[in-house]
Amino acid sequence: MQLNDIKQIKSLFPTLHQKVNGQDLVYLDSAATAMKPTAVIDRITRYYQLDNSNVHRGAHYLSQRGTDEFEKARHTVAEFINAKHDSEIIFTRGTTESINLVSSSYGRNFLKEGDEVILSIMEHHANVVPWHVLKTEKGIVLKYVYLTEDGQLDLEQLKRLVSSKTKLITVTGCSNTLGTFTDLKAITAIAKSVSAKVLVDAAQLVSQHKIDVQELDCDFLVFSGHKLFGPTGIGVLYAKQELLEQMPPYQTGGSMILEVTEQATTFHRPPFRFEAGTPHIEGVVGLMSAIQFFNSIDKTWLRAHEDKMLNAATSELEKLGDVVIYGSKANKAPILSFNIKGVHNSDVAALMDQQGVAVRSGHHCTQPLMKYLKTVGTIRASFSIYNDLNDVEKFVASVKKAKDLLL
Ligand code: PLP
Description:
Elements: H1 6-11, E1 19-20, E2 23-24, E3 26-27, H2 38-51, H3 61-80, E4 89-92, H4 95-110, E5 116-120, H5 129-138, E6 141-145, H6 155-161, E7 166-172, H7 184-193, E8 197-201, H8 213-216, E9 220-224, E10 235-239, H9 241-246, E11 257-260, E12 265-267, H10 281-295, H11 299-320, E13 323-326, E14 335-340, H12 345-354, E15 357-358, E16 360-362, H13 367-372, E17 378-382, H14 389-406
Parallel strand pairs: 3-15, 5-6, 5-7, 7-8, 8-9
Antiparallel strand pairs: 1-2, 4-10, 9-10, 11-12, 13-14, 14-17, 16-17
The protein binds pyridoxal-5'-phosphate.
Pyridoxal-5'-phosphate binds at residues 94-96, 124, 126-127, 172, 176, 201, 203-204, 224.
């Protein structure tokens, strides 16, 4: 039986049930980080109460049990995104570190001066800055794909942009600022037509759509545990086995070696080559628990539930007047970016917070997108699995009140 009852789902998230500023909390900032269900919190506590030990090194019972759980988690992640091999899953600190691993290990060694990397204008800074660094270091060329009139990624422009110089397309599966999904299968097909690699930033996508890396045929895919109802400080890099085999280590130290002599080291095979030092063990078991939780949610129900909230919030905001909504209307996650005309986004968010409604304001780590949209920032409400139409109502009332006070 899969979970599809909003009351029951809400009850599984203890952090939601509190007052802030004297009001019942309405948490609409899940695109920044998702709340954690009791199952994940309990699993992490249990790790420290019962299992605490280091992995991949002890001969004793607890360490063996810990290692088995750690590798079971790797298998759970591999199954979750349908990777061919468990060894294609590298545990990292999060999306940011995963992209840095690719840019440092793959980028530094396989990209050269004049090679082109294509990004979408919707990328989070985590998928922009590492490429800027590589541009300075290696002289690679960065090119951008923009949006169509209706706010979708412009695939026709992408087709015109690619050439034999294109070596990598690095693109989000879902914009953290606008909620817009990108057509990853089409993007991968375009990339393959010029033998370019594809990196998918799935930080937002992972809690929305079923991901199948074999079907997508992407070369790299990255995400963070904390946006998937799991702990902070843990994330995943998926990469095709044949690429990992060729990539040098990103960090070095214990666990990632075969042999160390006084003067030289030989490295382990992937995935261990990329996991130097004691890993974030409780993060890994917490992530496994989060995936098990997310797998228990009825996805047909979830899609309909989130669409209902998004559509209601969008049409109610439109009715208020003096509101600009950014991005596409169709093909999007329940993320709503908007401004009240003539008012600074942070003033609106502060007034909403006083009413217990938690939203994010600012540039959302997407300054190139803000510039493209000709704004300094927006207010972003992101709805998730545990929100409901009651939250939408309170959200709209809080925007209306802020508007009345500020205009
Ligand atoms: N990419 C996207 C699309 C994101 O939304 C985020 C976080 O907001 C990141 C990358 C960076 O993720 P993290 O801070 O977990 O490394």
